[in-house]
Amino acid sequence: MAALLMAGPASAADVRVMISAGFHGVYSELGPAFERASGHHLVTTRGPSMGDSPEAIPARLARGEAADVVILDGNAADELGRRELVRADSKIELARSLIGMVVRAGAEKPDIGSVEALRRTLLAAKSIAYSDSGSGTYLATTLFPKLGIADQIAGKSRKVRGPPSGEPVAAVVARGEAEIGFQQVSELIHIAGVSFVGTLPADVQPGFSFAAALARNVREPEAATALIRFLASAEAAPVILKAGLMPLSK
To answer: Which of 60, 102, 117, 199 could join 98 in a cystine, given CB atoms 3.0 to 4.6 angstroms apart?
Structure first.
């Protein structure tokens, strides 16, 4: 923080940030603190880490939308580095993330404590919702086929478009439009009208993380780097933990 305070209003910059939903809760709390400390102004654009939405961060960068910093799924950041849409050597991991499940508030919580219990719950559910970004892509393309149930649950599964034009999976569950919903924990636990059941069993967790990197055409590299350092600092850890993520800084 002391280093940030050295950057006074004379060096203030507009820092353009593209960010996915899973880390947005942390960013929305820490961003104003960064602005106050540094004098910089954050200009924020939201979108999924991946997927077929035109709002997805890879799609935005590919069509030339401006950004200084991107904050998104760690594997998606690596892919953007390979495509030279971000500077691969600038990537910094910010937090670890788990996939969890919710039901509508007041509904019975099914068992997902083991891989077999999860499989039974998926087969028994009347309807299933998952995100159109990283966690949903993993469920649809990896986990459901691995459990041998992809074809059996396809007709009752729904992919939910996320922010900015969409909504969290938990909102769909809260309205009763899906019996169970899956998304990264940070995107589930602060939504009204649902009960958090738990996380997927460790054996089938994909090991997600959130990371930040400089965009290829970064215009404010010093201010953008300062933001990344701030979000990765030990001071950010309590906010990251409160959001349902696992901080990497102690």
So the answer is: 199
Distance CA 50, CA 33 (A): 28
Task: Give the residues across from 209 on adjacent strands.
Answer: 96
Concatenated DSSP letters of 146-176: HTT-HHHHGGGEEEE--TTTS--HHHHHHTT
Q: Which residues pair with 166 in a beta bridge?
A: none
- Alpha carbon distance 109, 102 (integer Å): 8
Q: How many CB atoms lie within 10 A of CB 219?
A: 14
CB 48 within 8 A of CB 132: yes
Which helix (H) or strand (E) element contains residue 130?
Answer: strand 128-131
Give tens-digit pLDDT for 172-186.
999 999 999 999 999
Residue 237 CB coordination number (10 Å): 17
Helices (H), 73-130: 74-82, 115-124
Per-residue pLDDT of 115-139, as tens digits, reads 999 999 999 999 999 998 889 999 9
Residue from 191, 53, 28, 213 nearest 134 by CA:
53
Coil, strand or helix: which one is 26? helix
By DSSP bridging, strand 128-131 and strand 99-104 are unpaired
